[in-house]
Amino acid sequence: MSVLLQVSNLSKTYRLGGFWFNRKEIAALEPLSFEVNAHQTLAIVGETGSGKSTLAKLLVGAEKPTTGKIKLNGQTLQTGNFKQRCQHVRMIFQDSGTTLNPSLTIHQLLDEPLKLNTDLNETKRSQLIRETLQKVGLLADHMNFYPHMFSGGQKQRISLARAIILQPRVIILDEALASLDPSLRSQMINLLLDLQQQMGLAFILISHNLGIVRHFSDNMMVLYDGKVIEYGKTNDILNNPKHKYTRKLIMSQHLQLLHR
Amino acid sequence: MNLLDIRNLSIELESANNSILAVDRVSLSMKEGEVRGLVGESGSGKSLLAQALIGVLDERWNVHADRFHWRGKDLLRLAPDERKAIIAKDVAMIFQEPMSCLDPTATIGEQLEEAVDDGQLSGYFWQKRQQRQVAAANLLHKVGIKHHELCTKSYPHQLTEALCQRVMIAMALAGRPLLLIADEPTAAMESTNQGQIFRLLASLNQLKNMSILLISHDLETVTHWTNTITVMYSGQFVEAGTTEQIFNAPFHPYTRALVDSSPKANMQLPAKSRLMTLPGSIPILQHLPIGCRLGPRCPRAQQECVHAPKVTNYHGHQVSCHFSLKDTY
Amino acid sequence: MAREKIYQEEEFPTPLLQLWHNFRQNPIIMIGFGSFLFLILLAIFAPVLTPYSSVENHLDKLLLPPAWHKDGDVSFLLGTDNLGRDVLSRLMHGASLTFGLSIIVVLVSTIIGVVIGSLSALTTGIKSSFLNHFLDVILSIPSLLLAIVIVAILGPGLENTLWAIIMVLIPQFVHVTRNAVTEEFEKDYVLASRLDGANSLRILSYSIFPNIIEKIISQATLAQSAAILDIAALGFLGLGAPIPLPEWGSMLASSIDLFYIAPWTVYLPGLAILFSVIATNLVGEGMRHALKVRKES
Q: Most buried in the list B51, B180, C68, C150, measured by CB within 10 Å?
């Protein structure tokens, strides 16, 4: 399996404002490197403040990295050049309530990435939107509805449709499953697994729910305070955690499993 | 004698055309010192049930029940004001996002002092201010905050969510309640902090013999901290019993699906295989199915399920289903 | 009796229809809205509808009381003023002057303010701060005083008063637009749009403006009632429209000496000003209330 996404030496430091004398630097992310292959999932685990949201923003191109590069299929991705990037790397956000523009219909919402990045004509675009909606389990009639008419699980499906409509190679799930109910979460995971098999996607899952991580991911990376403290296969890390923090995390969620 | 005994509580919402039964004949009973979990996904009516217990629903909602006993006293015969007075004295509630439940313009110390019950302070009126501050500090000690000086001087936005939740529990304890209703107390927190809050609740339960009604949407976490569990779906009563019974041998197909979607059950599945789920999604209030509301999604549904099933009791394990899974165990 | 709908259908209104539905709930607001529309129609069609011209002198019928007095004449419904001009026609023409010009003033200042505010929100740092605040000095001076100063510099006349009032109204739009746009930028769907490769102009027009247009409109109605009063006040002071033009404020000023002899020449323009300001305020209030209700539901 070829390497799809290769990140080398990526880091990000923020400079706080203030005058030239006392500008403070905050290292949000220390240099890290990892690789993701097609049909594989990488899970990034860490608590708030560990740098995982910064990493997501760097990967998707919303922020410029201080050092390091990101290569997709051997081609370096440039920051700010969204057109190049968005066809290949897409993101699903956490809060489905604010990811969908409330004054646009679903058709207009899904039409926008198509209009900006492809040159299909009107009928072909409608056709593609229809097919994508059916792929995620919604009806084609839902094209004409507004976002406020959908439930939470359905809104996440629409975000997923928006992510796959450009047929990307990598999808980043920024805590996308955390706010769903358990039964909807299982349905969404099944859907994501199906899509991964069909389209050969690579997922980068950012989550702190170790149950999902164990089930869904092949490799895992644990972040603490901006540094990578563990990186390797999921099973290896969960069975033999080396770092104290990983052990604490496993204990607080697996405590359940030891009890019964 | 049961602490709380509710039989067939229903909550109706009067809308323009017809009335929607948001909670449909749910029964709940709690003993002293028991920790009961109330599990249900969004739309199951569990928060409505808790709010109806406390009595904070407004006139749009129509609440009626066959039986509503508190410590042996029948509360349905009393006037609403008296009922509220009795409940307010003995029942306290904590909510989901603690930072937004605290007044952002007052310090923690001021809010705690406001919560302290005046009747518990003895002394002349010039001593009361000092006693109130001491009582507030004691409350913070009870929830595990040792250095109370810094805490009392801060504002809610300066504390973390877990700390704010402890402050909320402290304020709830001020009235010395017999029952604490925790409405998804850890939804906004990381898993490490969740454990802290649950351990605190468990220790309060053991030390003070205070009953806790723990409302959550996650069956897995609830099973580690409770003695008994009640499961609700879309406003209807589904199953109730001890935690072992529910988790190891669920009778109702919905409970079975919830148990199957928990991480522990998934440990047995190979990685990246399909999870077992119920098809479909939760019905919205405007389109509730008749009879058993799980009907459209249930794998074992048949003709009879258009009539709502009655509750059957097998050695304390109650289930409300026509085709329960009892025979498969 | 046949019913059109047997099954209860669920309607899914668009956000705009929801707003309209909330707006319609309150009858007083609907009365205000109707009056507002009436004034707009009057402002547009006044030259066609008036019975007499606004400058025609009927020298045989000076200071005629309104038709309901015993001396009045029904052909001059609201009486005449001291030069024999029909008050009703003058009021109707005045609508197009006072009310119509206030709408134009508000439109121009809205457009300028929104452009400056959006530019300020798109940039960061000193440029943004400068754009946001360089017109704030206008806010510190009372609007009427500023208009007088500008008219004193540029000379009296209707155009100069209009420029003065436009300049006075711009800073509020700058602030409102900038705050609304900055707030919308925080939302995830704008980030998603940017990640799709949209440039700033497209993000502004598709993702942001539909969501902030209602805030801008409610600010515009506030500005309009201020504009009506300012135009009338400047006319009253003699700095606005020249005397023969039937602007309501200057009608008030020229008739004030006749208050004891012919009170209708004073109170009728005053009532007209009051009516238009109340209509504008009701529409603005209704819109704000409808927005709030829609947000809560």
A: B180
- Pairs across A and C, CB distance < 8 A: 60
- The pLDDT tens digits of the residues spanning A163-201 come to 888 888 888 888 888 778 888 888 888 888 888 888 888
Per the structure, the count of domains in chain B is: 1
Pairing assessment for the beta strands B179-183 and B91-94 based on DSSP bridges: parallel
Nearest to B258 by CA among B239, B274, B241: B239
CA distances from C75 to A135, B230, B272, C51, C65 (A): 74, 82, 89, 9, 11
Contact list in C for residue A86 (CB cut-off 8 A) is 195-197
A72-89 confidence digits (pLDDT tens): 877 777 776 677 777 788
Residue B216 lies in a domain: yes
pTM of the model: 0.80
Q: Which of B191, B195, B272 sits opposite A216 (nearest CB)?
A: B272
Domain boundaries of chain C, sorted by first residue:
28-296
Q: Which of residues 217-236 of B touch A (CB under 8 A)?
A: 217-221, 223-224
Domains in chain A and their CATH numbers?
Answer: 1-88+168-230 (3.40.50.300), 100-167 (no CATH)
Question: How distant, in Å, are the alpha carbons of A126, A137, A153, A166, B245 from that of A130?
Answer: 6, 11, 19, 13, 46
Which residues are within 8 A (CB) of C173 and not within 5 positions of it... i.e. 6 or more apart? C109, C110, C112, C113, C114, C116, C117, C216, C219, C220, C223
Q: Which of C141, C232, C213 is nearest to C173 (CA)?
A: C213
C206 touches chain A (CB under 8 A): yes
Tell me the residue length of chain B: 329
The CATH number, out of the four listed (3.40.50.1000, 3.40.1170.60, 1.10.3720.10, 2.40.70.10), of the domain defined by the range C28-296: 1.10.3720.10
Kindly report, residue by residue over A116-171, the tens digit of the pLDDT.
888 888 898 889 888 888 888 888 888 888 888 888 788 888 888 888 888 888 88
| Chain A interface includes C69 (CB < 8 A) | no
ipTM above 0.90 for this complex: no
Q: From residue B318, give the alpha-carbon distance in Å to each of B29, B85, B324.
A: 12, 32, 11
The answer for residues whose C-beta is within 8 angstroms of residue B59's C-beta and 6 or more apart is none
Nearest Cβ partner for C188 among A93, A113, A145:
A93
Query: For position A259, what pLDDT does the model report?
Result: 41
Using the Cβ of A190 and the Cβ atoms of chain B, whether some distance falls under 8 Å is answered with yes
Q: How far apart are CA B309 and CA B307, in angstroms?
A: 6
